[in-house]
Design a protein that fits this description.
This protein is mainly alpha-helical. The protein has nine helices and no strands.
Length: 219
């Protein structure tokens, strides 16, 4: 309290410490799960975060709660990348390439359903996925308008490919080099004028959501 007897406006340190602990736990959990799999012992995650197991459980009651928090965090990271790329005012194909490059750079922090995490089907999660899809569609529509992206490409094509390159193969040479080459091949493949037609029908955001909920595919 201040001299007037009113609570001070300065945030209490315990709250800041708790927020920092949660971020350390999530960052460590993402990296450890990428290395050792989703079923890595909770104690291993806590050790990597530099916190006790009790501290971890005070933030996340169980493994499912931790995975759900990681999924929300991943959507936030991807949303931030999309906003940053949009601010650059790039052409359509270059915007897609920049999104993929930046996603690859933080791939070790992305725990997502297309990587095998349990899919969240809450309204908040669905809205986050819809917004990611909307922004990518904007880049692709710009590419259609400026003639840099072929007409039969949609946002789901980019989302599925981003999931592939942000999940390293378990064995092989340096993943950044391999993934970078695949990224270049993909960008060249979606460029306007590509000689190989895309097989159809197109996979849509609704198809992905239906897969997450177990609903039958639309006819």
């Amino acid at each position: 309290m201040n001299s007037s007897g009113k609570p001070s406006g300065t945030p209490r340190r315990p709250r800041r410490d708790a927020e920092q602990n949660r971020e350390r736990i999530l960052a460590a959990a993402a990296a450890v799960m990428l290395r050792d799999g989703r079923h890595v012992p909770i104690a291993t995650i806590a050790a990597a975060a530099g916190v006790g197991v009790g501290t971890l459980y005070r933030s996340y009651a169980d493994r499912e709660a931790l995975l759900h928090a990681l999924e929300h965090r991943a959507y936030g990271l991807l949303g931030q990348i999309l906003r940053e790329v949009a601010a650059l005012d790039l052409g359509g194909l270059e915007a897609v390439r920049e999104f993929l490059s930046r996603s690859l750079a933080i791939g070790d922090q992305l725990i997502l359903p297309l990587h095998g995490a349990p899919p969240l089907v809450t309204a908040e999660a669905v809205a986050a996925r819809r917004e990611i899809n909307r922004q990518l569609d904007y880049f692709i529509e710009r590419g259609h308008a400026d003639g840099s992206i072929r007409a039969d490409v949609n946002a789901t094509d980019v989302i599925v490919f981003s999931a592939l390159i942000t999940q390293p193969l378990p064995h092989g040479p340096a993943w950044p080099l391999i993934a970078g080459r695949q990224l270049a091949a993909f960008v060249n493949g979606i460029a306007a004028g590509g000689p190989v037609p895309m097989p159809g029908p197109a996979v849509t955001r609704q198809d992905i959501e239906a897969a997450f909920t177990g609903a039958p595919d639309s006819p």
